[in-house]
Design goal:
It is a single chain. By secondary structure, this protein is α/β, with parallel strands linked by helices. It is built from nine helices and 14 strands. The protein folds into two domains: 34-190, Orthogonal Bundle (serine acetyltransferase, domain 1); 196-309, UDP N-Acetylglucosamine Acyltransferase, domain 1, CATH 2.160.10.10. It has a five-stranded parallel beta sheet with strand order 1-4-7-10-13. Strands 3-6-9-12-14 form a five-stranded parallel beta sheet. Strands 2-5-8-11 form a four-stranded parallel beta sheet, with no helix packed on it. α3 packs antiparallel against α4 and α6 (122-138) runs antiparallel to α8 (154-170).
């Protein structure tokens, strides 16, 4: 058993080690006094509020009626504007390389402008989500109603976060979109990078383990099952051996494609429209439109470019 003196020495030594700059220079963010930091708690509140706005009456504790919905929408949007402006500002400050040169008041006004621009896209985000819900309902015989899909299906939560994060990213908001996307990843097990481009009528059945990379392009009316990976095959390296970022390296999935469970699609390849990719297959070359790829026929399937999988 350690004596009180030994315990104190151990604690003091550990504090000294943890305070050495070389031990934390890669994992420490230094910020100016008064500079806001992104808050996962506040971002969670923003996401929950957006779900209330996008799906009125389904999330939160408010009982909406036709004669009260405009009032509550006004209250929600006002609060959303304040919270989102604050978190956008925090993201801008957090990623600023030369904070001492930044006009904080000007940056704050810019954050408010971006927040208002994002709010103007909410009707369009809702329109797309309505299509996603309808696709999930029509495509699943187990679903009894669209309400069940909204309440219960993890895909709707993940796709909602994606469409929110994707719009923020298009408005050049740093950091915050990735945090929102990773919240859905933690909540549902579905990993959709906010930079991916996904068309309308998108659905994921079951969903756990789905991965969609940052440079993926997905068309309209695409359906994925659990465990599908739309990933990168390899990374181009610079002369120093470091990965070159920003290069398209994930698949393009065209309209009306179905990809079944545990399929792995890698690299900047194209899955042609109206194709069906069976479960547990590994695809690294282009697939012609109207193809059907399954394990036992994989080597027999012909492609328009002569490539196999």
């Amino acid at each position: 058993m350690q004596s009180d003196l030994n315990i104190l020495e151990i604690i003091n030594k550990t504090v000294d080690q943890l305070s050495e700059p070389q031990s934390y220079d890669q994992v420490c963010h230094e910020h100016r006094l008064g500079e806001p930091l992104p808050s996962t708690e506040k971002l969670a509140r923003i996401v929950n509020m957006l779900r209330e706005i996008l799906f009125p009456g389904y999330f939160g504790n408010t009982s909406l009626r036709p004669n009260t919905i405009k009032h509550y929408m006004g209250v929600y949007v006002d609060e959303l504007f304040e919270l989102l402006s604050e978190q956008i500002l925090a993201g801008l400050c957090f990623t600023c390389e030369n904070p001492e040169e930044v006009d904080f008041q000007e940056r704050s006004r810019y954050a408010q402008s971006v927040a208002s621009d994002f709010i103007s896209f909410l009707p369009e985000i809702r329109r797309k989500l309505v299509g996603d819900v309808e696709t999930a309902f029509v495509g699943d015989p187990a679903a009894k109603s669209a309400s069940e899909v909204i309440f219960c299906y993890p895909a709707i939560r993940a796709i909602s976060n994606y469409r929110i994060a994707n719009q923020l990213l298009k408005l050049e908001v740093p950091l915050i979109p990735r945090i929102i996307a990773e919240m859905a990843h933690s909540e549902t097990g579905i990993d959709i990078h906010p930079k991916a481009e996904i068309g309308e009528g998108f659905t994921i059945d079951h969903g756990t383990g789905v991965v969609i990379g940052s440079t993926c392009i997905i068309g309209n009316n695409v359906k994925l099952y659990q465990g599908v990976t739309l990933g990168a095959k390899s990374f181009s390296l610079d002369e120093d051996g470091n990965p070159i970022k920003g290069v398209p390296r994930h698949p393009i999935v065209e309209d009306n494609v179905i990809i079944y469970a545990q399929a792995t699609i890698l690299g900047r390849i194209t899955i042609g429209k109206n194709s069906i990719i069976g479960g547990n297959v590994w695809v690294t070359n282009n697939i012609a439109p109207n193809s059907k790829i399954v394990q036992f026929k994989a080597r027999e399937t012909a492609f328009s470019d002569g490539a196999g999988i």
